[in-house]
Amino acid sequence: MENQYLVMINNRVCTRCLLRDMIDADTSMIEKYKAALKAEDIVSDEEYESRLDICKSCDKLNEGTCMACGCYVELRATAKVSRCPKKKW
Which domain, by its residues, includes 27? Predict the structure, then answer.
């Protein structure tokens, strides 16, 4: 019984977590996406963190994914033209 409990804990879903906060996440795709954008198309670091703070408090965030639209929030928050599907930013 104890082993089953430990497996359940280790496999739990991380709600309200960003990819960068998850131990096993591959964040290289985020960096590749950012590198592919022109500098003028990327929000400031302050705006990026502000957007992510809003996402982290949203009940639609699940394992770095927005359950309202299916995007990785860290990718969507990067581009100036991107908008939150719930109109929170």
Answer: 14-76
**pTM score:** 0.73
Q: Is residue 5 part of a domain?
A: no
* Distance in angstroms (rounded) separating the CA atoms of residues 76 and 72: 6
Q: Is residue 62 part of a domain?
A: yes
In a domain, 63, yes or no: yes
Residue 79: beta bridge partners?
42
- Supply the DSSP string of 38-72, one letter for each residue: -GGGBPPHHHHHHHHHHHHT-TTEETTEETTT--B
Would you say the C-alpha torsion 14, 15, 18, 19 has a positive or negative sign? Answer: positive
What pLDDT shows up at residue 1? Answer: 42
